[in-house]
Design brief:
The strands form three sheets. This protein has a seven-stranded mixed β-sheet, with helices on both faces. A three-stranded antiparallel β-sheet has the order 9-10-12, covered by helices on one side. Helix 1 packs across helix 11 and helix 2 packs parallel to helix 11. It has two domains: 232 residues, Type I PLP-dependent aspartate aminotransferase-like (Major domain) (Aspartate Aminotransferase, domain 2, 3-Layer(aba) Sandwich), CATH 3.40.640.10; 86 residues, Aspartate Aminotransferase, domain 1. The chain is of the alpha/beta class. Strand 5, helix 7 and strand 6 form a beta-alpha-beta unit. Helices cover 43% and strands 18% of the residues. This is Low-specificity L-threonine aldolase.
Length: 334
């Protein structure tokens, strides 16, 4: 099957599996797993932060970041379509009693700072205390401009807010901007990194921040069930990915652009293409049939009026050419 539903569907390569099988392990709850320690040290080095912490999932890493920045009755300002507001089961509110204040993002994925300023609550007993601005980079494939991040950083200093970046696909931003992770991370107090999307590991995310934040996060990770034991087997995949799978993300970006051009030539309406995400418009009367046709021909996509196609290391140009051929055949038989 050719699976373009998400870049979460990637499977570890033979070389990554070999690294996992040969990993040195210990008990990470006791902090004596050398491979986990090495992964966390490398993430801290790359991000320019003092420390990092390894998590089973990005959802848990984002949740723990919010719990570490905010207390009960506090509030974080976040995008209406942001993952840690819309797609993480309301964890911050349910488990942390942290109130989200969603605002609409601009077309480029940024949260307009004048809108954010208007959402900050007065220091009054009637209101939740605004403590944090949470951004997402990339946001639906869109890379946040570095000058915006610099402005957001200055804004949060002015308003005594912390700034967190949900960086599930932050290395896509690094590659697209031809910069370094540290150059982006300098404009935030904390960031998460997902290893199991475009970087191709089977599981795992990281939270990076200062020493005090990561100390709080370690306690919250344990409380929320994220303390793992011989996790070096998983951390080895992360180390492999950081060494071998970052620069190759450019291939995914190029493939998404190529796929968009090919589908547009067939008459498919292209909504947007940024980094490794392509959004196309599918007529209502074609949605169900297209999904069934593609599945019958070995292609998995989540078809809707606004269909997202995500390129990744398990879908090379030859596979995408098959997708185009099957899409063309579908349109021809309509």
């Amino acid at each position: 099957m050719i699976d373009l539903r998400s870049d979460t569907v990637t499977r570890p390569s033979a070389a990554m599996l070999s690294a996992m099988m040969s990993a040195e392990t210990g008990d990470d709850v006791y902090r004596d797993d050398p491979t986990v320690n090495a992964l966390e040290a490398e993430a801290a080095r790359l991000s320019g932060k003092a420390a990092a912490l390894f998590f089973p999932t990005g959802t848990q890493a984002n949740l723990v970041a919010l719990l570490s920045h905010c207390e009960r009755g506090d509030e974080y300002i976040v995008g209406q379509q942001a993952h840690n507001y819309k797609y993480e089961a309301g964890g911050a509110a349910v488990l942390g009693s942290i109130q989200p204040q969603p605002v609409l993002a601009a077309e480029d994925g940024t949260l307009p700072l004048d809108v954010v300023a208007a959402a900050i609550k007065p220091d009054d007993i009637h209101f939740a205390r605004t403590r944090l601005l949470s951004l997402e980079n990339t946001h639906h494939g869109r890379v946040l401009p570095l000058d915006y991040l610099e402005q957001a950083w200055a804004f949060t200093r002015q308003h005594q807010l912390a700034l967190h970046i949900d960086g599930a696909r932050i290395f896509n931003a690094v590659v697209a901007q031809q910069t370094t992770l540290a150059a982006i991370a300098r404009y935030c107090d904390s960031l998460t990194i997902c290893l199991s999307k475009g970087l191709g590991t089977p599981v795992g995310s990281l939270l990076c921040g200062d020493t005090a934040l990561i100390a709080r996060a370690r306690r919250w990770r344990k409380m929320t069930g994220g303390g793992m034991r011989q996790a070096g087997i998983l951390a080895a995949a992360g180390l492999y990915a950081l060494e071998h799978n970052v620069a190759r993300l450019q291939e995914d970006h190029d493939n998404a652009a190529w796929l968009g051009a090919q589908l547009q030539a067939l008459g498919v309406s292209i909504i947007d293409q940024q980094t490794n995400m392509l959004f196309v418009a599918v007529p209502e009367d074609q949605v169900t049939a297209l999904g069934e046709w593609m599945k019958a021909h070995g292609v998995l996509i989540s078809v809707g009026p606004r269909t997202r196609l995500v390129t990744h290391l398990d879908a090379d140009r030859a596979a995408l050419a098959q997708v185009v051929a099957h899409w063309k055949a579908f349109l021809q038989q309509r």
